[in-house]
Specification:
The chain contains seven helices and two strands; from the N terminus they run H-E-E-H-H-H-H-H-H. By secondary structure, the protein is mainly α. It folds into two domains: about 55 residues; about 90 residues, Cytochrome Bc1 Complex, Chain D, domain 2 (Orthogonal Bundle). The N and C termini lie far apart (about 60 Å). Bound molecules: heme C (HEC). Pfam families: Cytochrom_C (PF00034).
Length: about 170
Amino acid sequence: MKNLLEIIMPASLAVVAGSIVVCLFTLGNHLTPEPVREEVSSCAGMGPLPQPVKLISALPPGAEPGDIAAGDALFKGNCAQCHAVNEVVVGPALAGITKRRPMPWITAWVKNSSKLVASGDEYAVKIFNQYQQQQMPSFHLSKKEIEQIIFYIEDNGYRPAIGTDDVAYTPPKP
Ligand code: HEC
């Protein structure tokens, strides 16, 4: 009996360890720097996952490859002197802005924030007062360019690490 266990135990441990290695390897292959629009729903050797794992490299909904890089350049050229994605600089941290405001509001704000404040828009007046009534400049950017900036912001905001709900992703400091 003991002899049999001595054979079965290491063998089954090896199978489990092997599955885990294969699984991690498969996940690792998907985590390329190129944005991929994909969900992993099963892992080789371990059967289907309880729910699909959303990959960190997935593009924000609606974004095309190339939008993030374009948005990055536009953000650095126009917004970065006052804004960062994840921390307050002169203006607010912009992470999560699409959850706070609808896209048409964001576009109107970037094109002419003073006009929105003057119109009495409740949110605009509130944030304007909250930031000591500092006027954000108006930008002659197209709707598409503003969308690209927002895609870049969404792509770089804090997000949970794979498979966890409560661990914040901290981007590496440049
Ligand atoms: C000269 C500084 C400055 C620049 C440049 C600037 N902003 Fe702002 N932004 C602000 C300030 C200050 C606020 C806070 C509201 C206010 O005081 O008008 C703000 C607020 C915002 C808000 C609302 C944020 C929230 O949490 O509700 C958005 C969205 C925004 N800016 C986007 C942009 C984008 C996109 C660019 C680049 C195209 C940009 N800003 C460039 C200073 C700036």
